[in-house]
Specification:
The complex is a heterodimer of chains A (322) and B (628). Chain A is α+β, with helices and mostly antiparallel strands and 322 residues long. Chain A has two helices and 19 strands. In chain A, strand 12 and strand 13 form a beta hairpin. The chains are: A alpha+beta (322), B mainly beta (628). At the A-B interface, helix 1, strand 1, strand 3, strand 8 and strand 9 of A face strand 25, strand 32, strand 33 and strand 42 of B.
């Protein structure tokens, strides 16, 4: 079959151009971590946030990032802190975005799947004309969420205990040493929650003799759902300076969330710069009663005097009236 | 007497004999001669006259007399003996009718002493019998005689009698009062005085070295020979941290005492507990012995340094304090460097050393640490030696492939001083991009990452290798690269197509997951029309100069354009999934990759020759874990 002249001309031109396109350059690496939004413990009203970090190995130019969602029935629950279009700036190897999932109060208890795609491309207008068929890169975020009833749960990720000094006697009162026990807790439930109680059984350093059993005196902070946070338990000890073993127990309601043994070092007074011991809230019940008596008795006397004076004045007034 | 009378009778009877007469004559002659000699020798007295008679008499000096009897100024008695080396002082007061100054003389015996003109009197028997003598003292003023005692002669005895005398030093006729006193009316202040001798301290030693928490015992060969109280005096051993001792207050050197024994009859010994923590090293221990009367020993062992050694003990780790942390110290371990190492991960832990966290020269006692990091499926025992290293799942500190990328240091300020036995440490390390993920939808979801830690001290003693109580998860890292930036379909006439599909793009796995891809494209148009992605068909497709997206095909191998394995490329709303199945990369130096094959069919309706442009998007996603 004969080829028309105009078509032949076109083919030649087309061919020349495409030959030129075979000279390829190299894409920089691109990635996301984690490549999912996954939570099987969402509940009604929950707000769950998943940070996803976009990484580039060689950010020599600005790139346009575009987010598209394929989330049947639940797309309205999802939002991205940076919006659906944003710039991956030149020079930044890591760009975090936060995908927020807001579960409606009337959401059904069921599972949902979908995807979020993050596509990167050259900024509009920056791609030179004549580039041919260019390649844009994207990464897929798998979405797998489930709405369930309320769950109260947490995991202990790590613990640490700060150095402390022995208690001190002042004004006839004994201010115990303060054990500051820090727990990094991940709330794996979907409701604000956290350790309900911390107990220490303190033994001599050979773990032969139980010297003291104490519990936290402060209210342990609750942790928002799905968050990881370090919380503090304060426990009063009347032990003198020395080395001890402490068996700690972190309670989750009536359950034991974690129990283990740590070394406990109690220093002498003044040995730890910046240490702050217990104030009045660490006093024993007997000492608290002493303080109450010391403060309360004068107040009672003053009150009684006041009442007496008022009554006298009323009586005098009544007599004068009479 | 009767015998003498009988003798006299015989004398007169003997006159009747010649021998008797001669004897009588001899006696008379002798008497005469004696008288004659007397007359010659003695001055012939002046003639006495009746009007010149004179008289004379010499009144002799009289001795001083006791006003207050002698006594010990400080009672020296069995219950309150005088320690050898201390002074004993006697006091007394005397009067003298002639006003002579007097001396108080303390003698060992009751023999009358000798008064001396213008000087102190002497005890009967001389100075060897003298305890003390006062200075010349004005009458009626209290005199004091004192002596310094010593361990040896003349104080070698515990009990020593004394007799006090008062004498004057009258130049003409010095006299001592004829009666001594012993002060017995003053109780313990009277004779005798009692000397307490120092205890015998013959040897000392201790049973060190000892660990913190142990007990060091100091023993001695020691006793006391004084027995006046009814038994040997008891003794007590002091062990001081520094030189310096007082019999009244004990150790006076810096730091006070290590230990003090109870009173005992012989071989005093004492112990001290080596508290926890105590820094390892040599400790001074100066030993002192004294008896129950606070008399210190005088031997060479007194104040000698019976130093002891506190052993170095290995530090320890508590598994509950070990944590494996992300770069930001929150959440799971998250890789963020495609085809490289992500740095800044941390292992944190608290180390305990019974030798304190501060050594004896105030440096750090804890000096080194190692940490192995591994996927739990590998296990701690399989990630310890150099050969265990694997960038996917085991970062063994011993490996030269990992050791340059981990650094462990003690946290500043975490050691508060020598009384603090704990310090916190942080190991910072890097992890390769292909480290196995353990989070959701991975082959290792049931596992996690763990760490074992070992801490060492300045004497190279090390703790046991201790595994953390709780580990962490390694997050999936979807990272990839495409080597090409454009797709070169080659030169085609309208109606022609790539057959088989030959143009390729690669997909390189440079994260820690296996990959698949979704592909989509847009309508292509000529360079003059093309202004950007998805702009060619803004006003609908023009068959003469637009190439629809579904004219492109994709496949995982070089198949025919018409083959069923060649999938039609779609638009962005319905991307085409291509199960390219790039495995997870397992070797850092050779990332896994797979090619995608592309082809295009130039519509026959195209009439515009020239270059056509468009944009295809490759969206990488995690593949099913069976294909990793």
């Amino acid at each position: 079959m004969a080829i028309p002249t105009w078509r032949l001309f076109g083919v030649v031109t087309f061919a020349l151009f495409l030959v030129c396109l075979s000279a390829n350059s190299v894409h920089a690496g691109f990635g996301i971590t984690p490549p999912y939004v996954e939570n099987h413990r969402l509940t009604r009203g929950t707000v769950y946030e998943q940070k996803i970090t976009l990484v580039r190995s060689d950010p020599t130019e600005d790139l346009q990032a575009e987010i598209t969602m394929n989330l049947p029935e639940i797309e309205s629950w999802f939002s991205v802190d940076r919006g659906n279009k944003f710039i991956l700036p030149k020079g930044s190897t890591q760009i975090p975005i936060v995908v927020r999932v807001t579960v409606p109060d009337d959401a059904d208890y069921e599972a949902h799947q979908g995807t979020i795609r993050i596509r990167t491309s050259a900024l509009e207008g920056s791609a030179p004309s004549g580039s041919g068929v260019t390649i844009a890169l994207g990464a897929q975020v798998d979405v797998n969420v489930e709405v369930v009833d309320k769950i109260y749960d947490f995991e202990v990720r790590k613990i640490r205990s700060l150095d402390l000094e022995e208690g001190r006697r002042k004004w006839g009162l004994f201010f115990p040493g303060k054990i500051s026990f820090l727990m990094t807790i991940e709330n794996t439930g979907n409701t604000e929650y956290g350790p309900t109680k911390v107990q220490f059984e303190i033994y001599d350093r050979d773990m032969e003799t139980l010297l003291e059993t104490i519990e936290n005196t402060n209210r342990i902070e609750k942790i928002p759902p799905f968050a990881i946070q370090e919380v503090l338990a304060e426990l009063p000890t009347r032990l003198v300076a020395g080395q001890y073993k402490a068996k700690y127990t972190i309670f989750k309601g009536d359950e034991v969330a974690q129990q283990n043994v740590i070394d406990l070092s109690i220093s002498t007074i003044g040995a730890i710069p910046g240490y702050e011991g217990y104030g009045f809230n660490g006093l024993s019940l007997a000492d608290k009663l002493k303080v109450a008596a010391a403060l309360g008795v004068p107040l009672l006397i003053l009150g009684a005097l006041g009442v007496t004076l008022v009554r006298r004045r009323q009586r005098a007034h009544a007599l004068r009236s009479y | 007497m009767l015998h003498e009378l009988r003798t006299s009778g015989s004398f007169f009877r003997s006159l009747r004999t010649t021998e008797g007469k001669i004897t009588l004559l001899s006696l008379c002659s002798g008497a005469f001669l004696l008288a004659l000699v007397g007359i010659v020798l003695f001055e012939t007295p002046e003639p006495v006259r009746a009007d010149d008679v004179s008289t004379s008499v010499t009144v002799l000096n009289t001795p001083p007399t006791w006003t207050v009897n002698a006594q010990e100024l400080v009672a020296s008695a069995t219950s309150t003996p005088t320690n050898s080396g201390a002074n004993i002082t006697w006091i007394a007061t005397a009067d003298d009718s002639s006003g002579d100054r007097y001396y108080l003389l303390i003698c060992k015996t009751s023999g009358l002493p000798t008064a001396n003109a213008n000087t102190a009197p002497s005890c009967n028997g001389g100075v060897a019998n003298q305890w003390a003598v006062s200075a010349s003292t004005t009458v009626s003023v209290q005199a004091a005689a004192a002596t310094t005692t010593k361990e040896t002669f003349p104080f070698e005895n515990e009990k020593n009698d004394w007799f006090a005398w008062v004498c004057d030093g009258n130049a003409a006729l010095p006299r001592c009062f004829g009666t001594f006193t012993t002060g017995n009316e003053f109780g313990d202040n009277g004779s005798p005085f009692v000397i307490n001798h120092p205890p015998v301290f013959a040897a000392t030693a201790n049973d060190g070295p000892e660990n913190p928490g142990g007990t060091v015992t100091w023993s001695s060969t020691s006793y006391d020979n004084d027995v006046l109280s009814g038994a040997n005096d008891q003794i007590r051993l002091f062990v001081c941290r520094a030189a310096g001792f007082s019999t009244s207050t004990g150790c006076t050197g810096a730091g006070g005492g290590w230990a003090t024994s109870t009173l005992t009859a012989t071989n005093a010994a004492t112990t001290t507990d080596i508290v926890v923590p105590t820094r390892d090293g040599l400790y001074d221990a100066f030993v002192y012995l004294m008896d129950e009367h606070n008399h210190a020993a005088t031997s060479s062992f007194q104040a000698s340094n019976s130093s002891f050694t506190v052993n170095n003990v290995a530090p320890a780790l508590s598994s509950a304090t070990i944590s494996l942390e992300d770069v930001d110290n929150v959440g799971n371990l998250t890789l963020a460097t495609p085809e490289g190492q992500t740095s800044g991960f941390e292992v944190r832990f608290t180390a305990t050393d019974n030798n304190s966290c501060q050594n004896i020269v105030s440096g750090n006692e804890l000096t080194s640490a190692i940490a192995n990091i591994y996927r739990t499926g590998v296990g701690s025992t399989s990630c310890q030696v150099s050969g265990d290293y694997n960038s996917n799942n085991c970062y063994a500190n011993a490996s030269p492939l990992f050791s340059p990328y981990i650094s462990c240091t003690q946290d500043g300020g975490s050691c508060s001083g020598s009384s603090d036995s704990t310090a916190t440490w942080t190991c910072t390390f890097s992890v390769w991009y292909n480290a196995d993920p353990t989070d959701a939808s991975t082959p290792w979801t049931a596992e996690g990452w763990q760490t074992t830690v070992q801490i060492g001290d300045d004497d190279f003693a090390t703790s046991t290798l201790t595994e953390s109580l709780s580990g962490n998860e390694m997050t999936s890292f979807l990272a990839f690269n495409v080597s090409q930036t454009t797709i070169a379909f080659g030169s085609l006439e309208p109606g022609q197509f790539n057959d088989p599909l030959a143009t390729t793009t690669d997909l390189v796995a440079i994260g820690n997951v296996g990959l698949d891809e979704d592909l989509h494209g847009d309508t292509m148009c000529t360079t003059t029309e093309w202004t950007g992605p998805d702009t060619c068909d803004t006003n609908g497709i023009n068959p003469a100069n637009d190439i629809p997206v579904n004219n492109q095909k994709i496949a995982t191998s070089s198949v025919a354009y018409a083959a069923t394995e060649a999938f039609t490329l779609t638009g962005s709303s319905t991307p085409t999934e291509l199960t390219i199945r790039v495995p997870k990369t397992t070797a850092t130096s050779s990332p896994q990759e797979r090619d995608t094959y592309w082809g295009i069919n130039i519509p026959i309706a195209i009439t515009t020759a020239g270059s056509y442009e468009g944009q295809n998007t490759i969206t990488a996603k995690k593949s099913a874990i069976g294909f990793w």
